[in-house]
């Protein structure tokens, strides 16, 4: 049982990376948020079932969030770096919502070249007042339509550092899985008659009772 749980826990980072990538699209972000919370919770539960140690919970939570969020940020930066193109857009309408520190401005965009534009609603990035309606600016637009627009001067230089960071986080998670597996196997060996475990050999008393019945 411990080995089976450890194998499941070792494969969870693949699911975490996939959910992080899925969440980079505004269309899929709500679903990815729910899946991410459930996956991190499941990963922690599997680790806790493998070895009941207090540090397992905190390690699973911290590393799980780092893998999900980090993989999403890396994919977003890499995709925009490869497919993003500076594009002139026009703010066609502005509306506000109430925020904690003041109004939040939401702008509706349209490409000046007349081509259709995905994720045309933005907050910030030149959308700072109702008077901005009718003005034009340049934004970095993903030509595949997966990502929402970003500032044209977005900095992608930290991308290699992010890749290394996520790789380290995945490595630490696999190390935690290996450690919990060792602890779980040691606990199972020390307490073979615990709930859910059965003794592999019949006891001497049971063998003697069977002989008497014969």
TrEMBL record:
Superkingdom per UniProt: Bacteria
Region of interest called Disordered, as start-end residue ranges on this chain: 188-214
Keywords in alphabetical order: Membrane, Transmembrane, Transmembrane helix
Transmembrane segments: 5-22, 28-48, 55-75
UniProt-recorded name of the protein: DUF3592 domain-containing protein
Biological source species: Streptomyces gilvosporeus
């Amino acid at each position: 049982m411990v080995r089976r749980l450890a194998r499941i826990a070792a494969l969870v980072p693949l699911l975490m990376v996939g959910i992080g990538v899925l969440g980079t699209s505004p269309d899929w972000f709500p679903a990815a948020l729910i899946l991410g919370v459930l996956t991190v919770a499941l990963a922690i539960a599997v680790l806790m079932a493998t070895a009941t140690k207090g540090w397992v919970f905190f390690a699973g939570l911290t590393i799980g969030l780092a893998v999900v969020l980090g993989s999403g940020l890396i994919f977003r930066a890499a995709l925009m770096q490869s497919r993003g193109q500076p594009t002139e857009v026009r703010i066609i309408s502005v509306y506000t919502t109430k925020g904690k520190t003041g109004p939040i401005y939401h702008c509706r965009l349209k490409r000046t070249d007349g081509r259709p534009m995905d994720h045309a609603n933005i907050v910030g990035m030149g959308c700072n007042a109702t008077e901005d309606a009718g003005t034009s600016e340049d934004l970095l637009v993903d030509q595949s339509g997966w990502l929402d627009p970003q500032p044209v001067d977005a900095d992608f230089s930290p991308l290699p550092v992010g890749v290394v960071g996520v790789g380290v986080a995945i490595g630490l998670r696999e190390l935690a899985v290996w450690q919990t597996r060792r602890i779980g196997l040691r606990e199972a060996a020390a307490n073979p008659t615990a709930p859910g475990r059965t003794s592999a050999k019949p006891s001497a008393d049971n063998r003697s009772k069977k002989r008497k019945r014969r």
